[in-house]
Amino acid sequence: MSLIIEQPERFRQFDVVSDHSDHSYLNYWNKPTKSKKGISTTNNNNNANDAKTDGPDWFANPSSGVHKKIIKEWRVLERNLPEDIYVRVYERRIDLLRAAIVGPAGTPYHDGVFVFDVAFPPDYPARPPLVHYRSFGIRINPNLYANGKVCLSLLNTWFGSRNEKWNPGESTMLQILVSIQGLVLNKNPYFNEPGAGLFTGRKTKKSMAYTENTFIYSCMTMVYLLKKPPKNFETFISTHFRDRSTHILSACDAYMNSRAVVGCYGETSSDQVFKVSKNFKALMKSWYPHMVVVFKGTGASLGSFEQLMVEKKTTSSKGNYSDVKKKQKKEKSSGFRKLIGIVKGFLGFKKVGTAKEIKVNSSSS
């Protein structure tokens, strides 16, 4: 008698689900707002954090134009989603959608998972959908803000030519997702900044620093996602990182040891030595143990990577103590400079400003 082993069902790229309880736009459309004339209107801005009231009911009529259009979008997504984009829609809230995009290979987003919540407006497609990036407070791209705002020409939230903007007669939800995957999560995200494309030769160093920071942010996002996965994607996220964990950790180790350009693991010869900043190496060493822990929690077999975790943890602990001492010394120096600045101001000299923003990489823009 042969034993039949059932294989787990493959996670579908498109599916209709019921639980929308943690959606960013859950109660968004019925939130009352006031116009400049004081007239109460429905909400139409792009802040997903304002939702406090019950959901809408104007999407429930199957004969309405907006209902028909959204169902048509569902069919397009179900048949045409490209590889590494996964979508869930809701049977009782057709105005809501959630998408997960796997970061493309050859970019600092490789193997990461990036989740977006979407809300169709009541006059869709006259207006584009609202899109909120579930950021965990991290700005991972010039177009993806820490507060979840997504800047994209197709959403009318980013400048662009007329043919790049939302067109009610032609634009689709599929185009939005493909644009995020291909245009936003790209190899050199630094150049998504307005004006960063000018004099690119002079800004190569800044671009490299931004790419290094981006990979660190992507690793942080992996950890946070595994600790708090969005509903209906728990299985996908756990399985994805279980299957990709050794590749991700191998990439981290290669980057830390200058064996690959950050974001390009597997594309270059391991015999070459590449320039990687000390700051990146220090940050990577501090996050590496956290990644090993959450990956192990998925059931991944990590083997030698667990021993590497111990080594990185020990090294990063020493590094952290050194960083604290440097910070204390810097603060003392800063206090003295501030005192000198006050004296100069009192004597009528021009006050010299100090930088207030703390950045992950000092070479970033």
Automatic annotation (TrEMBL):
Q: Where is this region: Disordered?
A: 36-57
Pfam families found in the cross-reference section: UQ_con
Amino acid composition bias (Low complexity), ranges on this chain: 38-50
**Key words, A-Z:** Transferase, Ubl conjugation pathway
> Tell me, what is one Gene Ontology molecular-function annotation carried by this entry?
ubiquitin conjugating enzyme activity
CDD domains according to UniProt:
UBCc_UBE2O (cd23837)
Could you tell me which InterPro entries the record lists for this protein?
A: UBC, UBQ-conjugating_enzyme/RWD
Give the domain of life: Eukaryota
Instruction: Give the transmembrane ranges.
Output: none
Transferase listed as a keyword: yes
What are the UBC core domain coordinates in residue numbering?
65-221
Q: Which PROSITE patterns match?
A: UBC_2
What name does this protein carry? UBC core domain-containing protein
Q: Which organism is it from?
A: Rhododendron griersonianum
